[in-house]
Amino acid sequence: MQLGLNIDHIATLREARKINDPDPLEAIFIAKNAGVSQITIHLREDRRHINDFDVKRIIESSFLPINIECSIDEYIVDFICKQKPYKVTLVPEKREEVTTEGGLNMENNKIKDVIKEFQKHDIFVATFIDPNLSALELSKSYGADGIEIHTGYYANLTLMLYSNLKNTHNSIKNLELDKNSLIQEINTSLETIKNIAMRAKKLNLGVYAGHGLNYFNVKEIVKIQEIEELNIGQSIIAKSVFVGLKEAIKDMLDLMRV
Ligand code: PXP
């Protein structure tokens, strides 16, 4: 299973001062040496972290394939087509959200046109979807090359079970369940992810997963052999503050070895 490192939060830190430090580009060289297979960046409509200039220089300079997460906004699609990254992952986007909270609403027909547009420019396209069959089948019927399964629900359940989140103001209210219910729900969510991954593989789609994965919850996802690649950002960048990026990546890669 390969690791795609999401480096958005290096740019988040840079934007805290609006200067040019730390530089996300520097992370790519460290990531490559540490064993990362792909770099993921999200060009958000509000440019809260990665900006157009980052996209250009990262694509020009990276030795690793670049996966750009983006919405179906017309300007963004046009801009990314011109930059020609290796891969695009279509994601839903809400201005007010802290992070990408759920998968795409695949009922939106415009997604099909956007997929075709990227493919016309020789860009591989994945859709970021919740683990459900109808989103998977629509991705296939729209001609996507792959899917990325949103693991956020599973990840939130594990946070509620294994961390002290429940006792803080960040507690996820709708997941305030007793221990046994949480364990049951975690097992069900893993089964759902596995079933979607198996079905996607049968449909000949690339199968990826990500969101909220960390050093405590990644092992169970790694057991799902159909998943080829995990895209992980926040937990690795957070750990790198304390141990350095190379070490943080290596620790994650160790957990990803089966
Ligand atoms: N995959 C996709 C499609 C995402 O939108 C994100 C968040 O930007 C990630 C993976 C990484 O999530 P996290 O930062 O929680 O590891």
TrEMBL record:
Gene3D superfamilies, per the entry: Aldolase class I
Record lineage: Bacteria, Pseudomonadati, Campylobacterota, Epsilonproteobacteria, Campylobacterales
One GO CC term, this protein: cytosol
Ranges in coiled-coil conformation: 165-192
Pathway: Cofactor biosynthesis; pyridoxine 5'-phosphate biosynthesis; pyridoxine 5'-phosphate from D-erythrose 4-phosphate: step 5/5
Keyword terms: Coiled coil, Cytoplasm, Pyridoxine biosynthesis, Transferase
Binding site for 1-deoxy-D-xylulose 5-phosphate: D8, H9, R44, H49, T99
Positions with a binding annotation for 3-amino-2-oxopropyl phosphate: N6, R17, G212, G233, Q234
Reaction catalysis annotation: 3-amino-2-oxopropyl phosphate + 1-deoxy-D-xylulose 5-phosphate = pyridoxine 5'-phosphate + phosphate + 2 H2O + H(+)
Active site location: H42, E69, H211
Record-listed E.C. numbers: 2.6.99.2
GO biological process assignments: pyridoxine biosynthetic process
Biological role stated in the UniProt entry: Catalyzes the complicated ring closure reaction between the two acyclic compounds 1-deoxy-D-xylulose-5-phosphate (DXP) and 3-amino-2-oxopropyl phosphate (1-amino-acetone-3-phosphate or AAP) to form pyridoxine 5'-phosphate (PNP) and inorganic phosphate.
InterPro entries registered for this protein in UniProt: Aldolase_TIM, PyrdxlP_synth_PdxJ, Pyridoxine-5'_phos_synth
Protein location: Cytoplasm
Family the entry assigns: Belongs to the PNP synthase family.
Originating organism: Helicobacter anseris
Single GO molecular function: pyridoxine 5'-phosphate synthase activity
Subunit structure: Homooctamer; tetramer of dimers.
Name the record gives this protein: Pyridoxine 5'-phosphate synthase
Primary localization class, coarse: cytoplasm
HAMAP family xrefs: PdxJ
Top-level class of the enzyme under EC nomenclature: transferase
Site description Transition state stabilizer, residues in chain: E148
Record keyword Transferase present: yes
